[in-house]
Amino acid sequence: MNNQRSVFIQNETNLLRSVVLGIAHDQGDQLDINPVSKYHIAQGTYPTESDTMREIQAVEEALKAENVEVLRPRNLVQTEQIFTRDIGFVIDDRFIVSNMREPVRQPEIEGIDWLLEELGEEKIIRMPEGAIIEGGDVVLYNEHVFVGIGKRTNKKGFEHLKSLFPKKQFHGLALNVTSDPKTNILHLDCTFQPVGDGLAIIYENGFQQKPHIIYELFDDDHLIKITQEEMNNMFPNIFSISPQMVIIEENFTRLIQVLEKKGITCLTVPYSETSKLSGLLRCSTLPLERD
After folding, report:
1. pTM exceeds 0.85, yes or no
2. Which long-range contacts (CB under 8 A, 24 or more apart) does 206-213 make?
3. Domains in the chain and their CATH numbers?
4. In the chain, which stretches have pLDDT less than 50?
């Protein structure tokens, strides 16, 4: 096959051209691999396959309406494949295959084997054994790369990624990892995310130490600070189509008002059932190309 696909990502907000959106059918057994999903299993409120399929379809329709190319993983039997952000990520013109922490999730990369084939090995970076990193922990802001270090990404993963891109400024941020679904930070994109033009959403208590670099890059007027309850609802985990447009969960009323006052159009979708798996819109999307 000719390698005809290119990738290019430098930040979270530039105009989106193509994205891999997760799929929600044929999920297999309920997964208790994080405090939130464990809680919903115990409560009997774990989302149904039909509900998550319906919610992801709404995201697909919203993306296609904005002329974004939407690609999907190949179905793997009895495998949850909703959260494509974790399995790989793009920095500049390279696709990095994640080295995932949970063995049950490691096969998910096979669902995009066709994509890796289209890219060609020269554009793909594979992490060495022991260097654990997931895409939800990697947040790009032009020459700055923020990496969350916690349950799903380790120091070795951070250091190896940093060594691959010597021209970038890397910032390792230790996350607050707990067994409590109300306070645990699973990935960096659950507590921090740039949005719009020079803005960022932040849950300030999501870090073990104050992330000074974030406050150097974003002053108080450019930080949208959220509460613990809003973090629990995954407010930081919206998804930008451009600096002027985001896809957002329809119940995030306060955040929608804040963003729209700042000139950002909010495309609302239902996503509250999928969020019970401890992932929202950024988690479900793997951007391949932005302007």
Report:
1. yes
2. 206/175, 206/176, 206/231, 207/173, 207/174, 207/175, 207/176, 208/174, 208/175, 208/176, 209/174, 211/171, 211/173, 213/144, 213/146, 213/171
3. 16-290 (3.75.10.10)
4. 1
